[in-house]
Design brief:
Helix content is 28%, strand content 27%. It is an alpha/beta fold and 222 residues long. Bound molecules: ribulose-5-phosphate.
Length: 222
């Protein structure tokens, strides 16, 4: 089975998983990335049973609209049954690293309002300790050098994602060489640096359930 076939299988499993939870007035939070794109294409098949979606990026909004799914502004939504998104890494406690696509801040905002976060991944994303995938940090452009100097103190190497600008007009520093023993503490510590918008650790609001694609089918991890 190819990686894309596993992504499609988890996308289909996610639609099956959320379908019974949706009502006519439900809003679905939708993540960003290649796995989320498979999910959007599958979600479109049941668009008649729910109200619409909130997108975690401009790219996701475009894809949703392309399928004729209503896209709501986050500011007009005060509750959401479910948020579905991929991840770059996850551990056994359902902590995640996200933001490989640079959409981490909007993803965190949408995930935060959702009652349930369903994370869809293939088995290549599973790790014992988070940090192998460089941890993205979204930073206000004028603070980039100062934030990088602070981040070096965490025993990692911040690398500027050159030429990339987030949907919020900010830049990304990717932290190489981290071994994340205490995800919640590190998430807070990085977020407390002045000039940081947020970082890609999803530990304070991790996933509620992970649907993981494997060559033998989709595994549910709770
Ligand atoms: O956090 C993300 C984007 O900011 C994505 O969820 C993450 O990068 C996984 O992407 P993919 O499904 O393409 O592997």
């Amino acid at each position: 089975m190819t990686q894309d076939e596993m992504k499609l299988a988890v996308a289909q499993a996610a639609v099956e998983y959320i379908q019974p939870k949706l009502a006519r007035d439900s809003i679905v939070g939708v993540g960003t990335g290649s796995t989320a794109n498979f999910f959007i294409d599958e979600l479109a098949k049941i668009k008649h049973i729910f109200e619409g979606a909130v997108a975690s990026s401009e790219a996701t909004a475009e894809r949703l609209k392309g399928h004729g799914i209503n896209v709501f502004d986050m500011n007009s939504v005060d509750q959401m049954d479910v948020y579905v998104d991929g991840a770059d890494e996850f551990d056994g406690r359902l902590n995640l690293v996200k933001g490989g696509g640079g959409a981490l801040t909007r993803e965190k905002i949408v995930a935060d309002v959702a009652k349930e976060f369903v994370c869809i991944v293939d088995e290549s994303k599973k790790v014992d300790l988070l940090g192998l995938f460089p941890l993205p940090v979204e930073v206000i452009p004028m603070a980039r050098s100062q934030v990088a100097r602070e981040l070096v103190k965490l025993d990692c190497m911040p690398v500027y994602r050159e030429g990339f600008v987030t949907d919020n007009g900010n830049v990304i520093l990717d932290l190489h060489g981290l071994e994340v023993e205490e995800p919640k503490e590190l998430e807070t510590r990085i977020n407390n640096i002045v000039g940081v918008v947020t970082n890609g650790l999803f530990a304070r609001r991790g996933a509620n359930v992970i649907l993981m694609g494997t060559p033998n089918g989709v595994e549910t991890i709770k």
